[in-house]
């Protein structure tokens, strides 16, 4: 690829990304009242999307091969337990990550 | 409060929320920079791409696109597929971005998974300017990604310390965000649907193709279950 072709390729990716981010704001501008159904989706979608993002992070974990997803399971359980106990976002994230690193580097 | 003080206050409120993202983005950004480096690109590529694209997974894929044959239409369509989940973020932020002035353009431009998740769930204190808070969350995240990618592109091959497993910081963060949302919500139908459908689609369609079917199924189920979901939203906590 020439540099020009590379620039065009990156521009196509930028354009695609921006389209997915800006489209809802073009379709439902702030000046007009948003349809009730869209308002409902705006409230109901986020919890579902957060579930999707957790699964997305784990998409390459195989329960049949390697460590069978056990370190992931232990670390996520630790994150949930820490968070329910202290409710400190940074502590839960740091604790779970350090535990996971120890698990994959030394145990599994 | 003067305008300057209110901006400073928003920065101080926003910064702690972005610390886990600093760890995650520096790690992932450097990985990305190193990947570009070993693929034969100068650090200018990760530097410029991290500023303009600012969508992590897509940038890794763009490296492959740049190494392949020239096909911008395919690149565009592929981006739409992979980043389609941003449509859901926009729908969820229609209200929250209201009244943020010109900053709104940047808030939408920089709405990656992490910025969206924090800006949607953060408990912004009532005396902190919402617009500036969300602006700084987005800006800091953007800066972490940019600096990590660029440093990875420059120094990548020189770094030797065992970072295996550090990428789990993102999984941990989304787990906490999912949990926070769960504790705040009166209805848990959406959350359970989100987990269940994603797992099911991952199992059926595999890691590379499960996002679009998951989104379609979520949209369908939430539309069918609108009555019970809305009833629970209004019910007692």
Compact overview of the structure:
The complex is a heterodimer of chains A (108) and B (237). Chain A has 108 residues and is mostly helical.
Walk me through this protein's architecture.
The complex is a heterodimer of chains A (108) and B (237). Chain A is mostly helical. Chain A has 2 domains: 57 residues, no CATH class; 51 residues, no CATH class. In chain A, 77% of the residues lie in helices and 0% in strands. Chain A contains 4 helices and no strands. The longest helix of chain A is centred in the N-terminal third of the chain and has 25 residues. Chain A is flat. In chain A, 39% of the residues are buried. By secondary structure, chain B is mainly alpha-helical. Chain B folds into 2 domains: 165 residues, no CATH class; 53 residues, no CATH class. Helix content of chain B is 74%, strand content 0%. Chain B is built from 12 helices and no strands. In chain B, helix 6 crosses helix 8 and helix 10 packs antiparallel against helix 11. Chain B starts with a helix and ends with a helix. The model of chain B has no long low-confidence stretch (mean pLDDT 90). The interface between A and B is large, with 68 and 96 residues.
